[in-house]
Structure formats: structure tokens, C-alpha cells
Design brief:
3 copies of one chain form a homotrimer. By secondary structure, chain A is an alpha/beta fold. Chain A folds into 2 domains: 142 residues, Aspartate/ornithine carbamoyltransferase (Rossmann fold); 164 residues, Aspartate/ornithine carbamoyltransferase (Rossmann fold, 3-Layer(aba) Sandwich), CATH 3.40.50. Chain A is 38% helix and 14% strand. Chain A has 12 helices and 9 strands. The longest helix of chain A has 20 residues. Chain A starts with 18 loop residues before the first helix and ends with a helix. Chains A and B meet through helix 2 and helix 12 of A and strand 2 and helix 3 of B.
Amino acid sequence: MSDTTWTRHHILSLADFTTPEYDIVLQTAASFQEVLSRRTKKVPTLQGQVVANLFFESSTRTRSSFELAAKRLSADTLNFASATSSMTKGETILDTAKTYLAMGTDIMVIRHREAGVPHAIAQEMDRLGVRVSVLNAGDGQHEHPSQALLDLFTICTLLDPDFPRVELLKDKKIAIVGDILHSRVARSNIWSFTASGAHVHLAAPPTLLPKLFADYSKDKPGKLFLHWELEPALQDADFVMTLRLQKERMTSHLLPSLREYHQMFGLTHSMLQLCKPYVKVLHPGPVNRGVEISSELMDDSEFSLIQAQVTSGVAVRMALLYLIGSGKA
Amino acid sequence: MSDTTWTRHHILSLADFTTPEYDIVLQTAASFQEVLSRRTKKVPTLQGQVVANLFFESSTRTRSSFELAAKRLSADTLNFASATSSMTKGETILDTAKTYLAMGTDIMVIRHREAGVPHAIAQEMDRLGVRVSVLNAGDGQHEHPSQALLDLFTICTLLDPDFPRVELLKDKKIAIVGDILHSRVARSNIWSFTASGAHVHLAAPPTLLPKLFADYSKDKPGKLFLHWELEPALQDADFVMTLRLQKERMTSHLLPSLREYHQMFGLTHSMLQLCKPYVKVLHPGPVNRGVEISSELMDDSEFSLIQAQVTSGVAVRMALLYLIGSGKA
Amino acid sequence: MSDTTWTRHHILSLADFTTPEYDIVLQTAASFQEVLSRRTKKVPTLQGQVVANLFFESSTRTRSSFELAAKRLSADTLNFASATSSMTKGETILDTAKTYLAMGTDIMVIRHREAGVPHAIAQEMDRLGVRVSVLNAGDGQHEHPSQALLDLFTICTLLDPDFPRVELLKDKKIAIVGDILHSRVARSNIWSFTASGAHVHLAAPPTLLPKLFADYSKDKPGKLFLHWELEPALQDADFVMTLRLQKERMTSHLLPSLREYHQMFGLTHSMLQLCKPYVKVLHPGPVNRGVEISSELMDDSEFSLIQAQVTSGVAVRMALLYLIGSGKA
């Protein structure tokens, strides 16, 4: 695998990811995708290493994906969920992380409802001079890099299964639709898609897409576009990513009703007619059927990449754990 | 192992199990029981395969039994419990199953409080044309096939440790006592015991044994009998299975009191005098001591097979995972 | 490893631990500490054995430490937490233990909020004549032997990294400060430290250190001392162990306020000036920063052994599982 140039120790954000780094992740994930198609799906790469999933916010899907990725690399896994932890006893988050460090953890996969927690832990680990790596599995409304990387891998693999690479996205039009304001997935996707040379079109009601998002596009002229209606974003799009709408948004008066939201921003077969003929739809899951996407479209394997995203997730997470974990032991 | 004729892909219900199928399960479980007595209790059979325990209803005992069975076959396991899952975020159960499918799950072990959920998931998997197997670990008040198979194995192994087979049960009298109405275990047991040629006698208060249960016996003349008193069921019985009484049944006015229930249907040493001299007692667990069975009888190893059932559970579940899982990778 | 004389089957209490037993634990742990520094941190010692963590009281830190220790010995692990268990269905604790026994558990690691539960389970296992071992992972306010053994290992390893042994503690002065009344850790530490020939000085407000603790010192003349002020305990101390203060103690009127407690019994750099120059500070964790110890002191690696304790925990628990588990299979 072409990881000779990989130097990154933590994976916290895609804001400063370089094109070679994206390509290494894509090609390493492609290798693991191939491993997963073999009879024996395990490799001994991380044998004896410990991957601790520290999930201060619950998530079955992401935690299972990381756990499976770690097990297929033959690592030992520890699961921590805050509900059953001593967080209730008043220990700080940094203390919890240091406890797992002291136990011998090699990689910490961290999810927290507040932005910046994985960074703070990584910073503390570096200050201590230890070799543990931190992987951000979602922090508040900030970033969710492994999700954006699996989205990137899903798309690039579709465009060239044998040699996925970011240049394949050059000048593709990608629409991101929905609750962008609250989405860490969208923020990470904006970094990776614009870095790949794609044209990224955001579409949402004004309450879910404030003007400040235009700031993202300042140093990306001609790459990031904001729309308060769905149609211009879908027009000739190659890919459409729709985001989960948290039902809590209704009670906080950011939206009138789920039904109205679906009428204006819900993805359906008929809306897709605005897009390129071979358009594909992505969603980070879990899906609110009939809200951000129609049930029929979600299940239509001609258009939907949603299952492929989940499958990509295991390969991409194996790649990330491999890249930051190998050479450690 | 004599699995040359095994063709069943999912294990959802015992309603259509054939005698050869029962015998294959019994003999495969006997082989694994032998493995479990060795110094090294693990076999590499399912190495690299993923067994996902999707428990939408909590159960430590059954989940641990399946988890241990999977680990002793060298499979990787993923545990999903609905309390900590995105079910709270509104994803459908089929979507959850498809997510675990997309991650690379080979066998899904599913428990749900509603009857039919494992069937629905299996049907969807077949519709999708994928090779994943579904194992029903208890669905509502419908079936609990692995429990009934371990009961069958426990009894047949007692009758012939070297060669357990269903014909050993021919013309044995088996009493099933207790809350039959709400018991998925009883329903699965009725299928396996009557298919084995045993005479099955059900005993419970009328509220817990409605007449409709006679329907089960229509195509089993002379094999299934209903009693609203305990004594005729116990008379000359070879085996007595007593069922857990959910305490909630009291509040829903199906029963007068626990004490009265114990007096009428509780199993005790003195009641056992009605049975054959070598009668054995089974219970699917967990036991309400002093309600459906006296504490003394439960702990009397001369009569009680309750611990043997738990031990059989691991061997039988290894057999089931092996039979539906091998040949997959 | 020098385990030729090890005969203890369960580890429930340190009250009757002998000097040779302490030394065997220390030296076995030292061997595993060495294993943990290797490239491959796993040994096949307990392959095929099952370690069940039965935690009737939640504890992420201790459970993770035992789980990792078991995995590094290549054992299979089962985790049981009462919140998701059938305890809510009325099964007794002994019945739960017997279920895990029947499944094939080799070692049960048990935590319970009531004193004596691990002993009761061990007694029942012995009565049944089975070979399963029980390890007390904390029972009520009674004992927490693995914690005290890791404290002992941490201190002895500091004094002689190559050959940790109890005689190194002879005539050392060790202060134990804080909520001694409610601390199972303190009780276990008193046994191990006094058995090692150290002078143990307890310091706490009278409500948290009743006179009855003097009973511990009756057969240990000149080894155990009680103080209702911090200063005499710290004077010339070689090691200071401070205990977690449960905030519930305030509401039950055992203490005036956290702030006042910190002023009187909180450990700080300036208080440490009373001690020997090379004094070290221990804490069983999790720490209430600014209550029983100042945040600055906790993070000062010149004085604090807190991280070393966590690391020692994995090696010591590997040693304990190895000593009671080997020779079993």
C-alpha cells in the first residue's frame, strides 16, 4: 500500500488534508475492500494493539463500524459508553482519556457531543509525548472525517473501481441538501469535495443554511455555492447527498413541519429528473424515510448508494486505523 | 458431522422442521459438546465471519450464550442493543438490519418483542439476494427455536449421550406447565416434541391456556393434550417443563396471586411423585424461585436439568451457527 | 514465573494473604509488565478459557482493565452489566452466577454494591465442586483486592523495578487520607501494607474514620495509626494515598462542604512539604480534582503515580487471572 508518505498521527479534521493524503486513504481503503471480498476477511496488521472506542455520545452504527474495522485488523477493542461510565462520578474527559492511555490503548476513536473534544485529547496526548493516535468519530457540529472519507471513497470507487482517486471528482457537481447548519458530516464533506475539485452546491432553508457558510467558499472561488431552494442545487448534479433532519429542529422553531420540509427539500424520483441521468444519491444515515428522502428513492438501487456507503465505511475505517496505527507496535 | 443434507438457510421457526433436520442439529451439537470438554474449546470454523447479535429486546442470558457460541467458533461478534441504538432516532428495523448487512455481517441473531420480525428481516435479505442468515432468538410470543432445540438436545443426550436422536422421545410423556399463552418457548417446544413422537401434555389455568391451543393438536392426533389442572399432566410423565411466570400477569388480572398460582401449578418434590420415578424437570430460565417451581426442587440435581440446559445451549447454538454459517465464507 | 507454590483458587480478600503470595503476585505481574512492553503484547496462556465480568455495579475503568487483561491472555470475555440483565426479572445473583458457570465460564470477575457477594458465589461454586474461580472486583465497602495489589505493585516496582517484593516496604511510612470509612480500597490496602511491614497512617475527619478502625491495628502493634488531622499522617511519609470523596457524603451530613474538606484534607504541593523529599502520591481513581487532591498535584509527574497505577492494573490483573486460571484447562 502506498503509505510511504503518510505522516499524519491523528485524524481530527479534513480542513488541512492534502490531495496526496486523500489519495492514500482511497487506495488503502481499496486494498482493504479487496481483503473484505476474500474468504478470510481478517489481516494480522494490528495484532496486539488496542483500539478504544470512547463514545461520549451514543452511536450504534459508527461504533459497530469502527469495532468491526478494528477486529478485522486483529486489534483488541475496548468499548466505552458514557452512560455506563464514571463520567457520572465527575471525572473529566481528559482524565478518562488518560486512563485509557495508561491501560495501553494505541488508538482512541472518540465521539463527543461537543466540538473540539477529540482535538483537546489529541493535544494533551502530544503534550505528554505519547504515541497514541486520536481519531475523531464525530464532535458536536464540527467534523466527522471518517464519514466524509467514506463518502469520498464510495463516489470515487463508483467512478473507477480499480483506482479511486480524488481527481475523478474534478468539475463534478455535488449537491448537499438539508440541515447543513447542524451537520458535522456536511462540514467534513465540504472540505473533501472542494479539495477534490468538485463544485459543491449547498441547499437548505435559510434557518438551516446561514450566510456564514459562504465563508467556507472564500478561498474556494467557483467551488462552493449556497442555495435556499432545492432546484438550482439539483440542476445537472452528478451526486446528491441528503442529510438527516433531526426532528428536534421542529420544536426549536427552525422549521414549520416535517411535511412542508419534505415538499420543499425532500429528495424524490421526480426531483432527481433535474440532475444528470446517472445521478447517485448518498445519505450518512440513519434515514428518516419520507422526510429528507422518499422511501421509494432510498430503496432504489439504481440511484441509491446508501448501502454502499455503509460497506465503504468498514474499508475506509480499516484504512484509517492502519495508517495511523501501523508502525506503532 | 452429518450435515451433508442440511439446506436450511435461516432458522426462524420449528413449525416445518423435519426429523432429519432435528437429528442433524442433535448430532452436530453432540460433536460440539465434545469440543467443549477438550482442553482447547475453540474451533476455527467461522474464522473471519461476523455474527451480529441484534437484540431489540434485552436478554443477557441468551445473548451471552450466542456470543460465546460464536466466539468458540472463532467468529467476530457485534452486539447491538436497542437501548443504545439509533432506533431512538426513528430508523426502521429493516434499515438497521440492512446496515449490519452492508457492514459485512454473515449471520444475524435477532430478538424482538414483536412476533414476525426475524421472518420479515429474513424475507428482506432473500429479496435482496444476499447470503446472510437470520436466526430467530425469540420473537414476541411466537417462537424461540434455539431454546426448544437445546431442550430437545438436553433430553435426548440424557437418554443416549453417545447418539442423541429424536426417536428416543417416541411415546415419552412430556408435561409443559405454566404460562403457555405468553410463551414462545412453549410454542417452539410443542413443534419439536410432537414431531419427535412424544405425547405432550399442557397444563395451566384457563386464562393462560386458551382452547385455541387445541388447534395445535389437530394434525397431531394423540400427541397434544390440554389440561386446566396440574395432576393429569404430571401423571406418569417422563419429563416436566415448567415455564417462567411473568409477574406482570397478575396486574393484568390473568391470575389471582403468586401464592395461589404456586399452590395450583407450582412444581414441588411432592407433586413429582405423580410422575415416573426417573422424571426430570426443565425450565428455560430465569426462574422465579417459589413461584413456578420450589427452590428446593430447582436445586435438586437428581431431578433438575436446568443447569444442563444452559450448558447444552452453547453447544446447540454452536451447531446452529455452524450449520447455517459454514460454506458461506 | 515463580508460581510453583500458588494454591489459592479464588481471590476474595487480602485479609489472609501471605508474604509468599504477595511476592508471587508481584513477580508474576512484573513478567507481564515486560510482556506489555513487547511488540506483541498478547500471550496464549488462557486461550479457550472464558472470563466473565459480572458487574452488578457499573465501573468502566475496572471492567475495561479486567477485560483488557483477559484479552491479552487470549481468553474469551463475556460482559454482564446488571442494568441490561435479567436481574430485573427477579433471578437471584447466585442463579445468575450458576448460569454463567453452566455456559462454561472459567473465571468470574464480580463487582457488587453489597459486601460478601463474591464470597457467597465462591462458596456456592465450591459447594458444587466445580473448578471455576471467583475474583472480587469490589464488594460494597468491604474489599477490592486487585486494586490494593496494583497499588502494592506500583510502589514496589518504583523501589526495585527488576525485583518487586514486599520486603521493600519494611518500615516505609504510608499515609492513607480521606473517606476511609466507605472505602473498600483502603480496607484492602491496610491488609497489604501492614503485612508488608510498612507503617500505615490513616487520616480523615472523625466522621469518616471511626475509632473502630483501631481494631485493625490490634494484632499489628506499631503498624497502624489513626489521625483526625492530615499533618501527623504526612509527616515524613514515603507514600501518600488519597481516596476519592463521594459527593453523596455531603448530603448525608458527614461533611460540612467540599471546600472545607479540601482545606483540611486535600493534598497539595505545599502539604507535601511535610513528607519525605521523594514522596509519591497515589489515588485509586477516578479523581475529584480540587477536592481530595489539587489539580496541579495530580498532574505533576514528579509526585503522582496515578497513571502508573492504571498501567500496573493491567499487568496485575493479568497476573491474577493467570495464577487462578492456569492449570484449569
